[in-house]
Amino acid sequence: MDIFQHIPKLKSLIEQSERIVILTHYNPDGDAIGSSVAWYNYLQSLGKDSQIILPNDFPQNLKWIKGSETALLANQNMEKAEAFITHANLLICNDFQSLSRIDKLEDSVRKSEAIKVLVDHHIEPDVEQFDLIFSNTESSSTAELLFELITRLTPEKPVDTAAAEAIYAGIMTDTGSFSYSCNHKRTFEIVAKLIDFGIDTRRIHEEVYNTFSEDRMRLLGHCLTNRLTVFPELATAYMYLTKEDLRDFRYVPGDTEGVVNYALSIKDIKFAAFFIERENRIRISFRSQGDIDCNEFAKTYFNGGGHRNASGGNSFENIQETIQKFEKLLSEFKQKNNF
Ligand code: 5GP
Ligand code: MN
Q: What pLDDT score was predicted for residue 101?
């Protein structure tokens, strides 16, 4: 199916809508922020006002993205966020496949009469929750997919530099700086075009990856030194952080972004997990190599999902019980996935 067949419909929706809201998932990452801000900048270049609404705040190393400062944080101003959603004509749902991923905004989005457009690259979108769907699991990132949409919506008026930077930040972060989910030339062709639109790739990399706090680096050190378990015979490694760890290292959101990947960087490790103790649950990140399906694992055992090689989940047991449950599942999972 041609995923771009509904471009004319999207174009007329944008033209007709006076109140456009751009939404993304809880704990927004580089792709969520990059794609949302690119929408905002693009709509502004068409003379359209819009409002970005985030379920909660986003990491400090993404604050440089021009336009991100206009985002409304729902957890700090729920009434205002709900009012925007209720009165919107058009809701652009970015980088999530199910309304369960927008936290407390789910209810108001369900009730809103606005047309809901999905722009996303996750598998198994909840199709009945949206009116118009642009979903492509082949895209490295939602930002990449959005670039494809924009160049088809207004070929005569593609992205400006601010939108191009936001899109690049989304692609770069969702591919681990072009190390996964981008083994096709389309991603690189798009990056080449973004360079034509005036982005500075070196500066963007510096902003995102070389602006960490000392606390963040020391928390990573603690994690690798004191909180890492490796099972060579199971080709699996995991790490965890307790509430006390987070407090001791003055954790701020974003500080553990990417930590799980270090477990997967160990030679011969093919499956990795990272557990983090939150207020009312344990959040888990899973990463896997090749055909090993960690989406299925997260979905079956830990109330989550995601992609084949990167997924997330939740546990409502305590951290010891959660880790015990995880460890017990490993040999069967290894057998089933043949690794
Ligand atoms: P992360 O480990 O970075 O939080 O998440 C990895 C991937 O899994 C992301 O692409 C994210 O969209 C997806 N993901 C994370 N948590 C959940 C979840 O609870 N449910 C589903 N369906 N996907 C998730
Ligand atoms: Mn994404």
A: 94
Please give the DSSP secondary-structure letter assigned to residue 256. Answer: T
**pLDDT tops 90 at residue 306:** no
Q: Is the CB of 236 under 6 A from ligand 1?
A: no
3-state secondary structure of 249: coil
Ligand 1 pocket residue status of 121, Cβ below 6 Å:
no
Q: Is 270 in the pocket of ligand 1 (CB under 6 A)?
A: no
Atom number, ligand 1, closest to the C-alpha of residue 314: 19
Count of Cβ atoms closer than 10 Å to residue 337 Cβ: 18
195-222 pLDDT per residue, tens:
999 999 999 999 999 999 999 999 999 9
**CA-CA distance, 318 to 282, in Å (whole number)?**
7
What six digits make up the tokens of 218? Answer: 């020391």
Ligand closest in space to the Cα of 313:
1
Which tens digits make up the pLDDT trace of 248-257? Answer: 999 998 899 9
Give the tokens for residue 133. 């769907």
30 lines ligand 1 (CB under 6 A): no
312 CB within 6 A, ligand 1: yes
Supply the DSSP string of 103-138, one letter for each residue. Answer: GGGHHHHHH--SEEEEEE--SS--GGG-SEEEE-TT
Which atom of ligand 1 is closest in space to residue 286's alpha carbon? 2
- Select from 283, 238, 261 the least CA-distant residue to 176: 261
Non-local CB neighbours of 247 within 8 Å, separated by 6+ positions: none
